[in-house]
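Same chain as my last thread, 66 residues:
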Amino acid sequence: MVHYVDEAGNTIKGTVEDTPNVKVDTAYDTTDHKLKVIEKDGKRYIFTKVKDGDKETGQVVEGTTS
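reply #2:
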């Protein structure tokens, strides 16, 4: 899942599911969902960094991760 949030953790765009219904150990790459600019409620958000601990690429694991 790709979540778009501001620095305070507020959602600024709907969540995107990158690899739905795939088997564990399937490779994923969410970089194609990395938006440089998101506009919401008259504000302009510019991408600066991936949240510490999050990974843009890797292998699908069982369960929920944060």
